Amino acid sequence: MTEVAHVVVGPPEHGVTRFGLDLAAAMGGRVVHAAEASAVVAPGSPRAHVQYTDALYGRDTASAAASFELFTERLRASGAGTVTGTLHDLPDPDDEPARYQRRRTTYRQVLARLDAAIVCSDHERARFERLFEAGEARPAVTVIPLPIAPLALPAPADRPAPRHEVGVFGFVYPGKGHEDVVDALTGLPADLAFAVIGRPADGHDGQVTRLLDRVAAQGRPGRVEGFIPDDRLIERLRRVAVPVVPGRTMSASGSLNTWLSAGRRPLVAASPYTREMAARYPGGLHLYRPGELTAAISGVLDDPALSWLDQQPPAELSEPAIARDHTIALASAAFRHPAGAR
User: Strand locations in 56-214, DSSP E?
Assistant: First the structure.
């Protein structure tokens, strides 16, 4: 098979960028990375694979799609006869209708520039199908989950002393569920802190201010810690007393897998995607339904062992296995000889 060039756009700290770079390293082959699409040096390869989420390509979903169209034109002009891509954060049909239609239109524009696509969950595959009308032509698509990095599960005696806090990891943006966690803290001891281990997504500084005001109104400590470098991240995640993944509408989540890679068993809002993940990794997640988070937090405070994993993830979710699955997919007939969506 002709070598695939991985063309990755975005700042290194963004989860989609990190996934693309890690995947490229695991698969081998040529890697091209730039913070912005306009700065990419075309790889000059007959096959290019890209990562797409609208937040990495423009200030809004329309400008992102337009940027992506120019980006793929440059890839093809440089000799990439086949351009495939992994799509992230696909439009949610349960979103506000006007926003969904905007994002649906622009993700269709993006898919029109790809010869075949990968998505990271069965739930995303369902969202992918909703983008099209029955019988409408669309690129080939396959599902390959996000990987879970190798675990070094600490023995109970080696677990670090926890900070008295509830922690959410990742970027702050609408729909991530931070407010749900703060609301669930009402009535719990005021010295139980709320920690955001991450920074606001671009353009969402105001949400951080409102979030911390909401925490302060309860008389409890709260902080947004900003980006944590890789060499400190696992240690930081292991010091959280109660890890929470509160997003109710996510379709795949690198933040969730990072908690798992740290050996933590987080409290996770039940949703189609997280139920899918719980089935893939039995015992790896503690799912809660609406109205159950306060009791779940109290349960972990009473029994900290509940928040620690005691088993490795399934081998099929390991980084080598996921890299192998990508290699197989990109070598398949649908990806080598696509019907073409352009």
Answer: 82-87, 116-119, 140-143, 163-169, 193-197
d(CA 199, CA 330): 34
Which class for 315: exposed (0-12), middle (13-18), buried (19 or more C-beta within 10 A)? exposed
Q: How far is Cα 112 from Cα 233, in angstroms, rounded to an integer?
A: 38
Query: How would you classify the pairing of strands 31-34 and 193-197?
Result: unpaired
186-227 confidence digits (pLDDT tens): 989 999 999 999 998 877 888 899 999 999 999 999 999 999
Computed over every residue of the chain, the mean pLDDT equals 92
Task: State the Cα–Cα distance between residues 128 and 284, nearest whole angstrom.
Answer: 27
Task: Please state the pTM of the whole predicted model.
Answer: 0.92
Domain ranges for the chain, please list them: 5-146+318-336, 156-314
Per the rule left: phi > 0, alpha: psi between -120 and 50, beta: everything else, 97 is alpha
Angle in degrees, CA 148, 144, 142, rounded to 5:
175
Q: Which CATH superfamily is domain 156-314 in?
A: Glycogen Phosphorylase B; (3.40.50.2000)
Q: Which CATH number is 5-146+318-336 given?
A: 3.40.50.2020
Give the integer Cα–Cα distance in Å for 180 and 194: 12
Q: How far apart are CA 42 and CA 80, in angstroms?
A: 9
233: three-class secondary structure by DSSP: helix
Q: What is the DSSP letter of 129?
A: H
> What residues are paired with 223 via a beta bridge?
195
